[in-house]
Write a structure and sequence with these properties.
Elements lengths: L2 E5 L6 E5 L19 H12 L11 H4 L14 E2 L3 E2 L25 H10 L8 H9 L2 H11 L6 H13 L7 H6 L8 H12 L16 E3 L16 H4 L7 E3 L21 H13 L5 H12 L29
Antiparallel strand pairs: 1-2, 3-4, 5-6
Helix pairs in contact: 1-6, 3-6, 8-11, 10-11
């Protein structure tokens, strides 16, 4: 029987646990999907990086979900068309296929539904769907790719969002050090990191942050034990359902790659993991962590950073004289 030694908090000794019991851990390994349609994903990759989907010809999906920055933009709130300040912090696109719904308030059921929103949103890419489809249909390289993927030349919003969603399904981050530990590598984590994980569990954090994404599988009220004070006007699920019980209820964010996706919370008001841990401990679990405890939990959280998407930048097919022109300096 293979055994793993897990240190007991503050005692300096280890508890031997059979590796077979790791299947019961609340956080489970994350894995790349095996059922990707490569033709659709390749088109989606191009469209994800293509600024011609925006009115200005400047913004792309990658602008707010930068794959070089943990799938987010590291801003309090994103910059949209005409330097519009977004209303909420941009969530990471990495591992977003594991989300029970999309957007902080869960108003989109899946990645396909989500993909349509930012294109036409006047505060984001600001491009009417009809114009975005006209742009794509005017580019022979895209038309040829859609024929390969779907069998005909039709460029529809359903197909455009389908291919973007298929690409986003590939954006998983497996093989984090924590996953290596889960899969039996007893040397993958330090004693401090393991103690942080045990504290993370014993404090109740895993009640919301569990599963392969270490979150993203439920909605929860921000300020469960103590009210959360913020100037951000977002009301969470209340804006979707109109139910008073859903006021300040948001999708629980994934903790995968959390060290890369600062600033934190839906309002982007917290810059460091240490502050985020302390606030969450107080308002969600009623726990006040010591500096030592906070350091251990933060050390554990950093082990959730996995392998980042790594591929050559897509070569976008060129426009033609028939392609609608962008309006980079207009309202």
């Amino acid at each position: 029987m293979r055994l793993l030694s897990i240190p007991l908090l503050g005692l300096g000794v280890g508890l031997l646990i059979p590796l077979s019991l790791l299947a019961a851990e609340p956080i489970t390994p994350i894995a790349a999907p095996t059922d990707i349609d490569s033709n659709k994903a390749e088109i989606g990759k191009q469209l994800f990086f293509d600024p011609r989907l925006s009115k200005s010809g400047f913004l792309s999906c990658n602008s707010c979900h930068n794959l070089s920055m943990g799938g987010a933009d590291n801003l309090t709130s994103s910059v949209g068309h005409g330097w519009h300040q977004g209303p909420i912090n941009s969530p990471t696109v990495l591992n977003s296929a594991y989300n029970l719904a999309q957007f902080w308030d869960g108003r989109a059921a899946d990645l396909k539904e989500q993909a349509a929103g930012p294109i036409a949103n006047p505060g984001e890419m600001a491009q009417p769907h009809s114009v975005a489809l006209e742009v794509i249909a005017s580019i022979p390289g895209y038309v040829e790719s859609f024929v390969t993927a779907y069998g005909d030349e039709a460029i529809t919003l359903d197909r455009v969002t389908d291919v973007i969603a298929e690409f986003e399904r590939t954006l998983v981050t497996p093989n984090s050090r924590f996953d290596q530990w889960l899969q039996g590598d007893a040397t993958a984590l330090s004693s401090q990191e393991l103690e942080g994980y045990q504290l993370f569990k014993s404090s109740g954090c895993v009640g919301c942050h569990n599963g392969p994404a270490a979150g993203a599988a439920m909605f929860q009220k921000v300020g469960l034990i103590k009210p959360y004070t913020t100037d951000n006007p977002a009301l969470g699920r209340f804006a979707v359902t109109g139910k008073e019980s859903d006021r300040m209820v948001f999708k629980v964010p994934t903790l995968r790659n959390i060290e890369l996706t600062y600033p934190y919370f839906h309002d982007g008001s917290v810059d460091t993991l240490e502050e985020a841990v302390n606030i969450m401990g107080e308002i969600q679990t009623g726990r006040t962590f010591s500096d030592l405890e906070t350091g251990k939990i933060v050390a554990f959280l950093k082990t959730l950073t996995g392998e980042q998407p790594n591929f050559p930048l897509p070569q976008l097919p060129p426009s033609t004289p028939a392609t609608p022109q962008p309006e980079p300096y207009g309202p």
